[in-house]
Fold this protein.
Amino acid sequence: MKPVRTVNAHKPVVPVRIETDKAPGLLERFYNWRLGFSFDTESMLRGIVIGALLVFFAVLQTTFLSRFRPFGKTPDLMLPFVMTVGVLEREKCGAVCALISAFVIEAVTGASLTLLPLLYVPVAVAAALLTFNRLIDSVPVMVIYTISASLLRSVVSFIILMCTVKGIGVYAAVFLNVIPEFSSTVLISAIPQIITRLALKPFHKTRAERTGITE
């Protein structure tokens, strides 16, 4: 017969602490309100880098490229910048970056009609969602993104010109402004995309790349 296993009656019982429901504190409420954003050191550094890139491209667009304009029009550097941020950092970060970028570049250039947030935010969010759900982050895909976003930018530019410039005709708006701006943006778009990817590359390394240990 197999021996019968007995229970030690003298074994001390560990008391179980029962958590009671209580109202969350202020810090806990703020933590739950963050909408998925994290505020650890790496995220803060990433935000600082993105902010520095935003300022850099805004200054570059309004100073150097406003004087040395390819095709006679200043390219839109913020559009490929926010699109790349959306691809790399997902839709939430891309949308926030796009919204801030739109107001910054319009404040610097003194634009009277604010339509860029309606362009930048959907472009960043769409690029992020398509990349993480449908397409692969590759050079051909980024080319498609750039051309599509630049076409949308041309539509916005046409609306702004027709609403703000008195006496301008369709021919002058399209062939003297919209098409040169589209060509300049597509031509220069690789510069902000490459710089943004290089600046954010340290935040997208794998654990093996960071530690140098291969499993």
